[in-house]
Amino acid sequence: MTQKVAPSPTSSQGLSAPTERVIAVLELLGREPAKQFSLAEICRSLDISRATGHAILTTLTVREWVIRDPATARYTWGPAITRLARPDSTRLHRADLQQLATAADTQVSLARQEGATLVVIDTVGECQRGPRIKRGMRTPFVAPIGRDYVAWSSADAQHEWLQAIGTPSRQFQQRMTAVLTEIRHRGFIVERLTPQYVRVYTALRALSADGEVDEITTQLARAYAELSVIDVLEDELADGSAYSIATISAPIHNPDGTVTMTVMATVFATLDGPAIRMLGEQVRRTAQNIEQRIARYGEAVLPFSASDI
C-alpha cells in the first residue's frame, strides 16, 4: 500500500513541503527501527521521486540519523536519533492546556499521581477569582480526593481508597457509589466550592507537601468527606439549580486503561447545569487529546522535584 506524504493534521498554512517529506521518511523508518528499507521501497511507500528520496537519505546518512548498509544499500534507523532528548513530560502537553485555558478563560493544570499524593506538573492561565495553583503543589490521594483516578479502578481498589480514611458512614458510601458511577458515565468530576473546601484543601496541601500522608491527613480528609456534599450528579444538574464550583477535572487514561494524570480547570464561580456540562466537556476533550498523544508517542515520565517548582 502506498503511504503518501500527507500534511500535518493541523493547519497546513506555512508548512514546508520538503520538511514534511523528511519527517515522513523518518517516521517510516522509525515505525520499524530493526527493518532495512531499500530506496525503492521508501520512495514507493511515500510516493516521492527517487531523486528526492536519495537526496533526503544521503543527507540523513551523513548526519547518522539514518544508516546505509554498504553490503545491501538498504537504510535503517540511525544512532543519532537516540541522542535527541525527549521533551520534558511536565511540559509535553502545554499546547492543549493553553488552548483550554484560553477557551475557558481560567487557569488549567495538569496533575499526576505520585505514590500517596497528586502533584501538579504543569499549569497555564489565570483564574481571577480563585487561589493560584502552582507547579509542585501536592494533595493527598485519599477519599474523596482522587475520584477521577479511582472511578475506573476495580471494586477492590475503590474499597481500599475509601477505607483509607477509616470506615466511612453509610450515607457517604452510597453517595460515593453514585458519584463514581456518574464520573464513569460523563467523563469528568465536579468539585463544589464551599467554605469547608477552601479550608480543608489548604490544610491538606500543607500536610502532604512532603509527599507523605499521615493519620492527621486522613482524619482531616474524612471530616471533609462526612461534612460535604461530594460532586454534582446528573439529576442535580438537570433540576435548574446553580452551584458554586471550585474545579472541574477529567482523567487521562493510559493505553492500558489506567489513570495516572488529570486535567483540571479552576472555576471558583457559580454555574448552572448547562454551563457545568459545557466546561466539563471541554476539559474531557483536552484529556482525550493528551490520551491520543500518549497512545501515539508514549509518555516520558520524568522525576519531579522541588527544583522544578
Report what the structure shows.
The protein has 309 residues and is α+β, with helices and mostly antiparallel strands. It has 2 domains: 17-83, Orthogonal Bundle (Arc Repressor Mutant, subunit A); 94-308, Beta-Lactamase (2-Layer Sandwich). The protein is built from 11 helices and 8 strands. A 6-stranded antiparallel β-sheet has the order 5-4-3-8-7-6. Strands 1-2 form a two-stranded antiparallel ribbon. β7 (242-253) and β8 form a beta hairpin. α2 packs across α3 (50-62), α4 runs antiparallel to α11 and α8 packs antiparallel against α9. The protein starts with 16 loop residues before the first helix and ends in a 12-residue tail after the last helix.
Write the layout of secondary structure elements.
Layout: H1 17-31, H2 39-46, H3 50-62, E1 66-69, E2 74-77, H4 94-104, E3 108-114, E4 117-124, E5 138-140, H5 147-150, H6 155-163, H7 170-186, E6 189-192, H8 195-207, H9 215-227, H10 234-237, E7 242-253, E8 259-272, H11 273-297
Antiparallel strand pairs: 1-2, 3-4, 3-8, 4-5, 6-7, 7-8
Helix pairs in contact: 2-3, 4-11, 8-9
Summary keywords:
309 residues, alpha+beta, Arc Repressor Mutant, subunit A, Beta-Lactamase, 6-stranded antiparallel β-sheet, two-stranded antiparallel sheet, 11 helices, 8 strands, disordered C terminus
Quick synopsis:
This protein is an alpha+beta fold and about 300 residues long. About 45% of the residues lie in helices and about 20% in strands. It has helices at about 15-30, 40-45, 50-60, 95-105, 145-150, 155-165, 170-185, 195-205, 215-225, 235, 275-295; strands at about 65-70, 75, 110-115, 115-125, 140, 190, 240-255, 260-270.
